[in-house]
Amino acid sequence: MFLIIKMEKEEIGTGSVSKVYAENGVAVKVYNDMSTHEDDFETEVACLIELKGCKWVVQYISHDTQMGSITMELLEGDIVDLLLKRELFPHTWIENFTVDVLKADYAMGIRDIFHADINFNNVLYYINDDEEIHFKVCDFSHSTIMENESGITKPYPILGAPEWYKVNYEILNYAKSVTWTIAGLIYFIQTRKFITHELWKTSSYYKPGLKFHSTEHLESIEKFIIDNVDGEFSQTDIEDCIEYLDMDDVKNSDKLKEFLFKALVIDNTDRITSAEALGIFL
């Protein structure tokens, strides 16, 4: 006679198109409505399969198209979860975060995958055998597998690079848009503030005549920040933000600041790529 123990599933994440559950030692992502999100599901599955074996991306196990579910490895939690445990985990992990996410972006880039939604919910952490905190990128529902530079989904609006906010924006170097996003995450981790176009309007980087989407969109972003992560907007010059950033508990802070100076640049053409950024650290 065998005793069968059925473990209860626990909701560990929710997004605009799906929910994620922890169940029997794995993570199961279930899409809310396959009738409207079938393309997102198929893209995510394709990206995860293409990235199998990449140590900087959450690993695919299986999927069920009929159920609209994807089974993946289960990690500890996301960045916000880690920030809430700052007493246990000081920010000495921020360089590992930077290098791991840059490596994830580089690995995606050589496979022509554009994630488009790297944010504080979509970078998960784990603790390795050496008791070090490391990171993996997840959630490819808004990704694009590039055949050409058309049809890219806009990046997550809070952390998107300046060019993605412009009215009638043009596709520029998408790899350089991602480095802005990664640098923006680092700034958020250190300060709990976001660099947004409210800052650009008061910054020496701001270009007169640059047109943005409506302020109504900005207000909805601000509400999201207040409701979800207790963050706020920075209102000062970008270079000053970086220069006076407190990094006493960060190893190799000079390298990290060098990356921020080269990634948080308004002009897309002047920004560095993930490959160039890795050259600073490695």
Explain the overall architecture:
The chain has 282 residues and is α+β, with helices and mostly antiparallel strands. It contains nine helices and twelve strands. It has a five-stranded antiparallel beta sheet, covered by helices on one side. Strands 6-8-9 form a three-stranded antiparallel beta sheet. Strands 7-10 form a two-stranded antiparallel ribbon. Helix 3 (94-109) runs antiparallel to helix 4 and helix 3 runs antiparallel to helix 9.
Compile the SSE list and pairings:
Blueprint: E1 10-14, E2 18-23, E3 26-31, H1 34-50, E4 60-64, E5 69-73, E6 77-78, H2 79-83, H3 94-109, E7 113-114, E8 123-127, E9 133-137, E10 144-145, H4 174-191, E11 193-194, H5 197-200, H6 215-228, E12 232-233, H7 238-243, H8 253-263, H9 274-281
Parallel strand pairs: 11-12
Antiparallel strand pairs: 1-2, 2-3, 3-5, 4-5, 6-8, 7-10, 8-9
Helix pairs in contact: 3-4, 3-9
Write a brief caption for the model.
By secondary structure, the chain is an alpha+beta fold. The protein has nine helices and twelve strands.
Distinctive features:
35% helix; 17% strand; 282 residues; disordered N terminus; globular; five-stranded antiparallel beta sheet; alpha+beta
**Shape, per Cα inertia axes:** globular
Order of helices and strands: EEEHEEEHHEEEEHEHHEHHH
Summarize model confidence as the mean pLDDT.
80
Helix and strand composition category: alpha+beta
Please state roughly what percent of the residues sit in beta strands, choosing from under 5%, 5-15%, 15-25%, 25-35%, 35-45% or over 45%.
15-25%
Distance between the termini: 56 Å
Query: Would you report the number of β strands?
Result: 12
Placed side by side, the strands forming the largest sheet appear as 1-2-3-5-4
* Radius of gyration, in angstroms, nearest whole number: 19 Å
Annotation field: number of helices = 9
| Stretches with pLDDT under 50, minimum 5 residues | 1-6
Q: Could you describe the largest sheet, including whether it forms a barrel? A: 5 strands, antiparallel
User: Percent helix among the residues?
Assistant: 25-40%
